[in-house]
C-alpha cells in the first residue's frame, strides 16, 4: 500500500527543493550549430573575472543532473534530434536559456539550407539573452532573471512540442503508410 506525505510535510519538501534549485542551479551547455562566439562568452562568464558561480551556478556535463539547459546557435538538422534528446533527459522542472542572436532568431544562418530554425522552434525557451555574442554581463543578467522568476514561483514553459519530422524526411502519406 502506497503512503503519501501529509500536506504540511509535502509543502516543506517543496520549499526545500525550490530553495536548492534557486541557490544551486546546475547548467548544461548545448551548442546547436553556432560559430562558437557565444560558447567562448559563456566560458568567460564562468571564469574568475565574471564568476557566475557566485550565484551558485555550476556548469555540469550531464543533462540528467542539470536544472538549466543553456543553448547557443541556430538549430541545424543534425543537432535537432540531439537537442530534443538532451532536453528530454533533463529532470523536471527544467529551464531553457537561449544565448545569442543565432539561438533567438537564427541570426546570420536563418536562411541556410541546413537550419531548422531558432531554439524556440524545437524546445520551449524560458529566457532569451540577445547579442552577437552576448557580453558576460548580459549572460549573468539572463541567469539572474531566470533565478528571479524561480523565486517568484514561475513554472517552466510547457513541455517540448511533439517532435516533427526533420525537413526532407518522408512522411506517412509520402511513404504510402496509413494516415
Q: Mind explaining what this structure looks like?
A:
There is one protein chain. 34% of the residues are buried. Strand 1 (26-31), helix 2 and strand 2 form a beta-alpha-beta unit. The protein has five helices and seven strands; from the N terminus they run H-E-H-E-E-E-H-E-H-E-E-H. Strands 2-1-3-5-7 form a five-stranded parallel β-sheet, with helices on both faces. A two-stranded antiparallel sheet has the order 4-6. The protein has a domain at 22-142: Rossmann fold, CATH 3.40.50. It has 179 residues and is of the alpha/beta class. It has helices at residues 7-23, 37-46, 77-89, 101-105, 136-151, and strands at residues 26-31, 58-59, 68-72, 75-76, 95-99, 115-117, 127-129.
List keywords for this structure.
179 residues, alpha/beta, single chain, two-stranded antiparallel ribbon, disordered C terminus, 5-stranded parallel sheet, Rossmann fold, 7 strands, 5 helices
The helical percent reads 25-40%
| Biggest beta sheet attributes | 5 strands, parallel
What is the CATH first-level class name of the domain at 22-142?
Alpha Beta
Could you say what the CATH architecture of the domain at 22-142 is? 3-Layer(aba) Sandwich
Q: Topology as H/E string?
A: HEHEEEHEHEEH
Determine the N-to-C terminus distance: 43 Å
What is the CATH third-level topology name of the domain at 22-142? Rossmann fold
Shape: globular
Radius of gyration: 18 Å
Flag low-confidence runs. Answer: 169-179
The main sheet orders its strands as 2-1-3-5-7
Amino acid at each position: 500500500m502506497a503512503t503519501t506525505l501529509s500536506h504540511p510535510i509535502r509543502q516543506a519538501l517543496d520549499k526545500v527543493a525550490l530553495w536548492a534549485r534557486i541557490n544551486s542551479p546546475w547548467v548544461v551547455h548545448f551548442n546547436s550549430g553556432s560559430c562558437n562566439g557565444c560558447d567562448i562568452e559563456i566560458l568567460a562568464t564562468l571564469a574568475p573575472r565574471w564568476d557566475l558561480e557566485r550565484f551558485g551556478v555550476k556548469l555540469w556535463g550531464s543533462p540528467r543532473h542539470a536544472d538549466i539547459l543553456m543553448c547557443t546557435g541556430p538549430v541545424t538538422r543534425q543537432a535537432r534530434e540531439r537537442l530534443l534528446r538532451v532536453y528530454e533527459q533533463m529532470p523536471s522542472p527544467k529551464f531553457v536559456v537561449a544565448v545569442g542572436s543565432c539561438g533567438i532568431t537564427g541570426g546570420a544562418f536563418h536562411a541556410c539550407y541546413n537550419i531548422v530554425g531558432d531554439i524556440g522552434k524545437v524546445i520551449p525557451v524560458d529566457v532569451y539573452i540577445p547579442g552577437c555574442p552576448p557580453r558576460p554581463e548580459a549572460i549573468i543578467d539572463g541567469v539572474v532573471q531566470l533565478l528571479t522568476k524561480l523565486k517568484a514561483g514561475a513554472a517552466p514553459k510547457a513541455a517540448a512540442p511533439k517532435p516533427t519530422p526533420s525537413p526532407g524526411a518522408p512522411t506517412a502519406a509520402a511513404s504510402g503508410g496509413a494516415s
